[in-house]
Design goal:
six-stranded mixed β-sheet, 415 residues, Coagulation Factor XIII, Chain A, domain 1, alpha/beta, 22% helix, 9 helices
Amino acid sequence: MAHEPAPDTAVSIAGVSKQFRIPSDQMRTIKQRILHPVRSREYEVLSALREVSVEVSRGEFFGIVGRNGSGKSTLMKCLAGIYRADAGEIWLRGRLAPFIELGVGFHPELTARDNVQINAIMFGLTPAEARNRFDRIIDFAELRDFVDLKLKNYSSGMQVRLAFSAMVHVDADVLLIDEVLAVGDASFQQKCHDALMGMRDQGRTILLVTHDMSAVQRFCHRAMLLERGELVAVGDPREIGRRYEEVNFQDEADALDPSSPHNGDGAAVIVDAWFEDRHGQRCATLPHGEQASACMAVEVREEMVDPIFGFVLTDSRRDMIFSVTSAWRYGATGGFTSGDRLEVRTAFENVLSPGRYRFSPQVAHAGTGSRLMDHRPEATSVVVSGGREGAGKVDLPYEIIIDRARSGAPAATDA
């Protein structure tokens, strides 16, 4: 390398690029090859990675996130030596244990017993060390009853158990873990998470590829976001999770759904609905903890006085989160004539938990609000990013106060 990374660096990636050539006119049969032996083949170039640079420190739990096709798995395979980078430099310090594709390093015709021995040796253990750790690996994987069964007869979940167990018992300094953890059942996933936390506490370096932003926030010290092979951002897991949600939903429409029906007498018509961020910009995602607005555009068709504007927000299960109207807060809204176009907003602090929310705007005649001019159920939606997974329907700011109980209080006595 041109320079050696700092002593506390475990993984250094400097300007790494990787391209794949994809034949645009593939000859799929022997007949085609015989009839066209000298046909020149044209290729399309796919840039899977484009000058990606990042350094991971020793003992760091580092997340790698991005949409499908963003280059996450390609980067991991370059780190593991499965792919050779076309440009750039990769530097790793210590023993490496990759867990990036189901079945890699296993032979389907061999038993679990033989595969564990071979796999452990591939990870750098001596044959004696592999034999000594065999029982621990099998017991962790909970496969004692299937140890002499050929791997081709294992389910994908059983193979994950075996591969992960082998990886965590070889004392690797750097672990590469791809999304394959999601294949296991819930109880084993929790067992894997506990093992990862234990290795993190031991100072192992772990690189984790995942689409699970709650796992990124729960485990990772830092994270990076890839998009179309390019590095978008590196930093705090919560911020990277928010950026990931923005990238993931940036192509979704944030305006009114034209299929949303009209309900009302048509004296006024809702012609648009959307969400705005704290800067007043339309958006398909809203960061948790910031000011936001739900908005509607209304065309007035008949003269009216003090119409009532209503806003209803529901979650992905169609449960109501909140409902507000102008009548509750302001009462009079003014007089309007046919042809007027209005933009009406309700601003709120976004304490919503992560997830998708749907907005149903409505306009009603003055009075009780039961005579609708227009109601557009689930006219548009927005995704809330950030916040804490599992916090409930809203993630409210809070404090926990612990007071030590005073001793010496008088004891109760009988009358």
